Amino acid sequence: MPKNRNAFSSLAAWRRRTLSRAVHRGWRWVQETGAVTADRPGELRFRRIGEGTRLAFPQGTVFGEPWIELGSHCVIGEQVTLTAGLMPDLDLGPDPILTLGDGVVLGRGSHVVADTTVTIGPDTYCGPYVYVTSTNHSYDDPHEPVGRQWPRMEPVAIGPGCWIGTGAVILPGATLGRNVVVAAGAVVRGEVPDHAVVAGAPARVVRSWDPEKGWQPPLRTPAPVPIPTGVTPEQLLALAEPGESSGPAVD
Q: Which residues of 9-21 are buried (b: 16+ CB within 10 A; e: fewer)?
């Protein structure tokens, strides 16, 4: 191959590498600048946004912020939807509609749709693409399109310390107790007791904790290594993102 062709090929490769590095540096700058925090809320005026809470950029659909309370040290991934009310610019009264406790983690692409009250307790972790809603379509009238019928709304309450796997759906009226594990893809309705593991669609309890007997049925996997003291939700999320964990394994 002629020398000038080799030189041209090397120059083109150098340009591609340089452009690629510039694009990645630029995107990291955009992500950092576009992130929402208590100190840098941008155009979003939440009722409360706690210290250390961060909404990654780009954000998903967000409206009804005056009725949304975000606790401290929450980690909210990219393209997460947070809404209060059926549509923007409604007066929803004096009380909060959507409340996230301290240390809540919402994985990328998740949706929390609160047309009536939705509460997520502290230290609850959600994998990617979790859907939590207080509203469902009604279909009482067989002659009217479902989308034109007034929806039904029921409050949702998720207790502290839960883990909700990728793609899980929490339906209107659901009440989850403390430290509940929801398997990936589960569809949860009704009441789930403390320290239970649920799976399936509709979800059912597949494992629960007995104070005398321990987990029933017994666990078949060794106990995990405890999380070191001082590890933040941000660090845990950073560890989880490369593999995009699909949720808990229910053995």
A: eeeeeeeeeeeee
Token output for 141: 């009238």
Sign (positive or negative) of CA dihedral 220, 225, 229, 234: negative
- Written as six digits, the tokens of 65 are 């912020």
Instruction: For residue 32, give the 3-state DSSP assignment.
Output: helix
* Spatial CB neighbours of 130, under 8 Å, sequence gap ≥ 6: 106, 107, 110, 111, 164, 165, 166, 167, 168, 169, 170
Asked whether the beta carbons of 132 and 100 are under 8 A apart, the reply is no
Q: Are strands 204-210 and 187-188 parallel, antiparallel or unpaired?
A: unpaired
What is the per-residue pLDDT across 10-23, written as a single tens digit (0 to 9) for each? Answer: 777 878 888 888 88
- With beta carbons less than 8 A apart as the criterion, state whether 197 and 250 touch: yes
Query: Tokens at residue 95, please?
Result: 């009380």
- pTM for the model: 0.82
Interatomic CA distance for residues 170 and 229, integer angstroms: 31
